[in-house]
Amino acid sequence: MSSEREQQRSRLHGEQTEQPSDEPWTDLELTIPHNRSPTSIVSFVECVLVELTHEDVGAEVVSTSVAGVKRTQFIVVDGTGQRFQKRYFDERLGRHETTVSRETVRDELVSRLTHQSSLGGEVGQNDVDGSQDRFCVKPARELRFQE
Q1: Disordered: where is this region (predicted)?
Q2: Residues with Cβ < 8 Å from 129, sequence gap 6 or more?
Q3: Which residues of the chain have pLDDT under 50?
Q4: So where are the chain's domains?
């Protein structure tokens, strides 16, 4: 069964390179702050989790503050979508990776996307604007830390 799934993913991957705009996950992005309701964010996160489970994609939250850029990425590490690799990168503290449950990913994404930006939408020191915070889903191969 896993080889059949790999063949399907391989076929889908070939189709993705030809028609990337047809993929349902391409619209799963959000800038922070936003005007969505908490209920809308929960629905959005559930859609994200479905795509993370069924496609070769990952989720990334990028936060910008006076302390620098912080990236948190989530990628499925098992065939059932119950375990995720969480990658965290902070310009000052470096990188850290751990394995977390689907419930942890759901809770963290809902929390991070429900709250406003890291600077509350105000311009801080060095003209860093909190509106640069963003969330997106993109192919797992594109999720690399940019140090």
Answers
A1: 1-32
A2: 64, 119, 123
A3: 1-20, 117-130, 147
A4: 23-142
